[in-house]
Design a protein that fits this description.
The chain has 483 residues and is of the alpha+beta class. Helix content is 40%, strand content 26%. The strands form four sheets. Strands 1, 2, 3, 4, 5 and 6 form a six-stranded antiparallel β-sheet that branches. Helix 3 crosses helix 5, helix 9 runs antiparallel to helix 10 and helix 10 runs antiparallel to helix 12.
């Protein structure tokens, strides 16, 4: 099935500005469907009649269309009625409901006007079901829906100033308030009343200035969104948030206008206290985790510094070399924790980490002569526990290539990474003396590499002589933990 963008492109009769207007309308029309307890179907004219390009069902009532009507053609018998609605640019209301099987449907046709021209028609279809007496809430909902539909027919809705992220949030069922032109409350739904009571507003807010009622419960010197006042007065189509010591509300304002003159507003309210509490808990946990990584990094750097000092004071070459290797391994792990201390995620961009790790390993293995390292391919994002093991393994391999392949002198080393989702293959190549008959050896570095690859990385490692000279070490690792 085609999406709205493709369907509008297919009509050919609309300008870019008119297509964008319809996109904004569809992004914001759920409020009308919920207020009207009705399905909304957007019909756009083309060379052969009308095509349904969008459909919204009410969250507050029973739908008329159980099957999707998008991309369907308008029955020929109804074409004249929609054409007349567009020509007159006035809302058409059916005097009598039409029957579809076992229930009646009341239909209104609303012309969609943009820049003074009718470009489409909204069919507002309500499932009447069985006869019943309309409640006060339903009456106010439907009156608000009528006001918004009239704004559509005058080209005053949707509001182009509404941020994209705020469209549709909060919803009508969360809480709805109707204001008059002065910002006084004409009606507040039960859910809206509950929202403001949790905020700290006492008593019934009907007849009161909403801005004054909310301002009274704000904590002294508490930060206030600069858009709060204009939203509470019904002067701006905007999203804001208000907090008191006991609750947090998200508020969405939608002014009701007639030819540019403001007649009142609709305010949607949602209690987001629990959401904000959970966000604060997560932020606290994230900050704690970052602080732990930071402190671990500092402690490891302290250990590395102590090892470096001890190595400088040692007179034994073997002891000095062992301490230098220990210092390099600790510094490698510290680099990973330093990266994790700057991110909210427990994953790291290993390409960035590895560039620093391999540079450190090469400088320590050959302090007097430069080592040229080239990284080919990408490691991608790697989980924290895997990043530490992988860093230590690759550091050991680069160091071994310099120390044993090139005898501690400068040389060229290629690291080739191939990532396929959870599987990682890494080849470390040097142009040194090769393995020869001695093989990869059985020193501490080799033992560390084997243990980490087979254990933490759940993979395998092989050493091979290259035909052109030098050594190639191949690692296969699984980066995802088994479920």
């Amino acid at each position: 099935m085609s999406n709205l963008h493709e369907l509008l492109r297919g009509t050919g009769a609309l300008s870019d500005r008119e297509r964008e207007w319809l996109h904004l309308l569809v992004g914001d029309w759920q409020i009308i469907a919920d207020l009207a307890f009705a399905d909304l179907v957007l019909w756009v004219p083309d060379t052969e009649g009308f095509t349904a390009v969008a459909h919204a069902r009410p969250a507050t009532g029973t739908t008329v269309h159980h099957e999707d009507v998008v991309d369907h053609r308008l029955p020929e018998g109804r074409r004249g009625l929609l054409e007349r609605t567009m020509a007159l640019a006035k809302i058409y209301r059916d005097a009598e409901p039409r029957w579809t099987g076992s229930y009646a449907v009341r239909e209104d046709l609303v012309p969609v006007v943009a820049d003074g021209r009718a470009i489409a028609v909204i069919a507002r279809e309500a499932n009447l079901g069985t006869a019943y007496t309309q409640t006060r809430l339903e009456r106010h909902y439907c009156e608000a829906a009528d006001e918004l539909c009239e704004m559509i027919a005058r080209g005053e809705f949707p509001a182009t100033t509404v941020p994209t992220y705020s469209r549709g949030t909060p919803r009508v069922g969360d809480g709805m308030v109707r204001l008059d032109m002065h910002g006084r409350v004409k009606y507040a739904s039960p859910n809206a009343m509950s929202c403001f009571h949790r905020l700290g507003v006492k008593g019934n807010i009907t007849g009161r200035l909403l801005a004054e009622a909310v301002t009274e419960v704000l904590a002294p010197n508490s930060p206030v969104d600069e858009n709060l006042a204009v939203v509470l007065m019904g002067k701006a189509a905007w999203l804001t948030e208000v907090e008191s010591p006991g609750a947090s509300l998200t508020l969405r304002g939608q002014p009701i206008t007639e030819y540019g003159e403001r007649l009142g507003a609709i305010i949607l309210a949602r209690d987001v206290s629990e959401v904000r509490r959970q966000e604060r808990e997560l932020m606290t946990k994230d900050a704690t985790i970052r602080e732990i990584h930071h402190r671990v990094k500092n402690n490891l750097q302290t250990v590395a510094a102590l090892l470096r000092l001890q190595a400088r004071r040692s007179s034994s070459p073997e002891t000095k070399a062992a301490l230098d290797e220990a210092m390099r391994r600790v510094s490698t792990i510290a680099l990973v924790h330093e990266t994790l201390s700057h991110t909210l995620d427990e994953t790291v961009d290993f390409d960035d980490v590895f560039l620093r790790v391999v540079r450190l390993a090469a400088e320590l293995a050959s302090p007097t002569e430069p080592v040229q390292t080239r990284v080919i391919g990408s490691f991608g994002l790697v989980a924290a526990e895997v990043a530490t093991s992988l860093s230590v393994v690759l550091t050991e391999l680069v160091s071994n290539a310099v120390e044993h392949g090139y005898g501690g002198h400068g040389g060229n080393i290629d690291i080739i990474a191939t990532r396929d989702d959870c599987h990682l293959s890494v080849k470390v190549r040097d142009g040194g003396s090769g393995l020869g008959s001695r093989g990869p050896g059985s020193g501490l570095g080799t033992q560390i590499v084997r243990t980490l690859v087979q254990g933490e990385l759940r993979g395998a490692i092989t050493w091979n002589d290259r035909v052109e000279g030098g050594t190639e070490v191949v690692i296969h690792a699984e980066l995802c933990r088994p479920k």
